[in-house]
Design a protein that fits this description.
This protein is mostly helical. The N and C termini lie far apart (about 45 Å). The protein has a three-stranded parallel beta sheet. A two-stranded parallel ribbon has the order 4-5. Helix 3 packs across helix 12, helix 7 packs across helix 8 and helix 9 packs antiparallel against helix 12. It is about 55% helix and about 5% strand. It has two domains: about 210 residues, Rossmann fold, CATH 3.40.50; about 90 residues, Orthogonal Bundle (Tyrosyl-Transfer RNA Synthetase), CATH 1.10.240. The protein is built from 13 helices and five strands. Strand 4, helix 8 and strand 5 form a beta-alpha-beta unit. The structure holds tryptophan.
Length: about 325
Amino acid sequence: MCENNTEAAKKKVLSCIQPSGMLTLGNYLGALKNWVAMQEEFDCTYAVADLHAITVRQEPAKLRSQIYSTYALLLALGIDPEKHTVFIQSHVPEHSALSWLLSCNTQFGEMARMTQFKDKSAKHPENVNVGLFSYPVLMAADILLYKPDLVPVGHDQKQHLEIARDIAIRFNNKYGDVFTVPEPYIPKIGARVMSLQDPTKKMSKSDDNLNAWVAILDDRDTIIRKFKRAVTDSEAVVRMADEKPGISNLITIYSAVTGKTTQEVEKEFDGKGYGDFKLAVGEAVADTLNPIKERYDEIIKDKKALEQLYKEGANKAERVARKTYFKAMKKVGFVL
Ligand code: TRP
């Protein structure tokens, strides 16, 4: 790759994360670890997507504390609010405002075929609200306001990013050049972490079985205990194989946190039992996550300092967002 160290030449990256409860080891290894790594190479804008969270019912006090804790966690992971932009989505009103402009340029049929909408509305038939339906339009606004070159998203958000690109292309064709059409970014690192109790399913914090997932903020003993209970198989050989999803998942996790290749991991545990292996994975995960928890505990204690950071983050974000928003308004024909 061609290296150019001037700030202006850095590509821009944008991503957002919902403040919906505990973030897991899966979120860390699948996405957030990469958010941290991308800071080296790119100019990054990261947001806590709190407006997206209310498309499903939230308890106000709990939502508030989750917004705080998600923001604090981003800092604890090592995301640098001075060099990059880290903010809370609802603090920059241009997100909701642009979302309206884009809604009027998005077809009902386009939204109706979104698979996440179909899944979520089937899951919560008692609350199929209009926000849940138009959620991808707000996400398009999140993205397009900042003109990123790249948007790292997981598999479940690919379709939404595709729609954001379609909306941008159509808007530009109709009104003139306003938006940058972003590319999806598939990270070099990034592991798909499966449930510790049913390794054919993705690790998820909404799993009722608390042993199925590890929170980034779990303490050491809890992490080790959960790995000790992880579901494996009866072969007692530490090797990657399709028919061994439990052990394969543990190898993937161990390899992601230690930086060893899967072959190296297989070799390291050649002739050893699952008990030893599970303990080693638990300890390695705890060694990775515990320093994050320590920093988090410090950051969350100081609400004043946290407030100052998220306010500065919002100001920085809004300076960029406002320009794009007003340009779009003007092109559509509004009086400014
Ligand atoms: N919808 C995304 C999720 O649930 C979060 C999100 C909101 C997002 N806005 C975004 C991701 C913009 C990337 C870009 O994971």
